[in-house]
Amino acid sequence: MIDSAVTVEMRHLTRAFGSIVAVRDLNLTIAKGEVFGLLGPNGSGKTTTIRMLCGLIAPSEGTAIVAGVDVVKSPDLIKERIGYMSQRFGLYEDLTVAENMDFFAGIYGLEGPSRRGRIAEVVSFLGLNRRLYQLAGTLSGGWKQRLGLACALMHRPPVLFLDEPTAGVDPAARKGFWITISALAGQGTTVIVTTHYMDEAGRCGRIALMSQGHLIALGTAGEVAKQVGGKDLEDAFIILQERDEQEQEA
Predict the structure, then answer these.
(1) Phi, psi at 157, each rounded to 5°
(2) Which of 8, 43, 94, 225 could lock 230 by a disulfide, CB 3.0 to 4.6 Å apart?
(3) What pTM, to 2 d.p., does this model score?
(4) Cα separation, 28 vs 35, whole angstroms
(5) What per-residue confidence (pLDDT) applies to 67?
(6) Which helix (H) or strand (E) covers residue 248, if one does?
(7) Are 233 and 201 in contact (CB under 8 A)?
């Protein structure tokens, strides 16, 4: 029986591609309203982990429960319970901001007054009022980011996945984005983030540091740094990268 405060639980989660084990025996729990960071060098298993949690690929062993849904037994149901946003945003650039939101609201099954009401809520929450009739393709990186988040939030998902969401976005927009993420977490949304920015990783309540498919360290930024032997999170990340490179050369 899963604790009602736990929104995501991974049990011996493993994924192999032939002889290569991308994720090995991952055991984690993530609480409701937690901002949780997945951190690690390229090839560490972050993306594979997220793909399993989103129901896009099946685990080779183990399982995970996401917002009450088993990723092995009901992968299609997971898509109704999660929001996903990547650095590419997934927008239709030849549609306006309003048209993009209306399209995604329809994809998620919102109709009539509930559809219009939810769009209005998200527009207000993210400050998109003055951009509604602008083509998505003409937006700056920061505004595309807001629109991508708006589309991901349209169906009120209890779990939100952010895959390097601020890549290529200016510092001011990044700061504003994280204020929004904190507000979402305060409302009870569980947010799982991958990022290469150490300052952003430090904003997460907890971090799972991965390397070559293994969970290396878990805790706050300071705790993770200490577990790896670094003076801070950035130093710990560099130490881990150097270890990986030495092992690959050996």
Answers:
(1) -70, 140
(2) 225
(3) 0.91
(4) 14
(5) 95
(6) helix 233-249
(7) yes
- Enumerate residue ranges in the chain where pLDDT < 70: 1-4, 89, 249-250
The values of phi and psi at residue 165, to 5°, are -70, -15
Tokens of 110: 């919102």
Q: Find, among 153, 154, 129, 137, the residue nearest to 96 by Cα.
A: 137
Residues 6+ positions from 132 with CB-CB distance below 8 Å: 96, 97, 98, 123
Place of tokens 């399993």: 52
Rounded CA Rg of the chain: 18
Query: In the structure encoding, which two tokens stand for residue 33, read together?
Result: 């309203």
Query: What secondary structure letter does DSSP report for 168?
Result: T
Strand order in the sheet with 190-194: 82-86, 159-163, 190-194, 35-39, 206-211, 214-219
Which residue's structure tokens are 């032939």? Answer: 18
Burial profile 71-102: b = 16 or more Cβ within 10 angstroms, e = fewer: beeebeebbebbbbbbbebebeeeebbbebbb
